[in-house]
Amino acid sequence: MGTSISFKRADGKDTNGYLAKAGRDHAPGIVVIQEWWGLQEQIRGICDRLARAGYEALAPDLYEGVTVDYHDAAKADREMSSLDFLDATDNIVKGAAQYLGKSGSKVGLTGFCLGGAVTILGAVRVKEISAACCFYGIPPKEAADPAMIGIPFDCHFANKDDWCTPEVVNALEATLKKAGVKGSIYRYDAEHAFMNEQRTVHDRTAAELAWGRMLKFWEKHLSA
Fold this sequence. Notes:
Number of strands: 8
Structural class: alpha/beta
CATH topology: Rossmann fold
Number of helices: 6
Mean pLDDT: 96
Low-confidence stretches: none
Largest sheet: 8 strands, mixed
Oligomer: single chain
CATH class: Alpha Beta
Strand content: 15-25%
């Protein structure tokens, strides 16, 4: 449904991504950030689904063409560890938001795992983003303080996650509540990466519930 494109980073350099178009003028945009596996088919599928729901969806290729097989966690960790998260946020995410915002429509940001952490970074650092929806990812607080989020912000986490553990999520929720950030934290009795239908950790019930909640969030904050 979508296609590979080249677009400008915020610093003017060229970068690549996958764009799925909504098929109507002035559709709101959503920047979609990959898991640590790279710009996999599954992430492109997320863009396609968002396009069918009425949004222009752009997934930047943060690994510049590298994708990792699901069984190779060591390679995925190396790729993620070599990523400059702040450069990716300030230049690639910002550039993607600027690309989608050319029509004058609002732009949202979402991401999964690694992309969830980038979603929080972008919610703090990228002024072109009007709303953000994070899936099971949290960056170090020294990279971006969630208390500084000034846009509508929803989060989706798994209760059986050994990275974003319930304790870590509780701390995030307390920070957001104290800062008065508008949004909700949803918890699911599932494992990390439960939205990825290509992996054994996929939980259809949780994924469908989260997807519906996300679409309601976008409808409220991007389509108005």
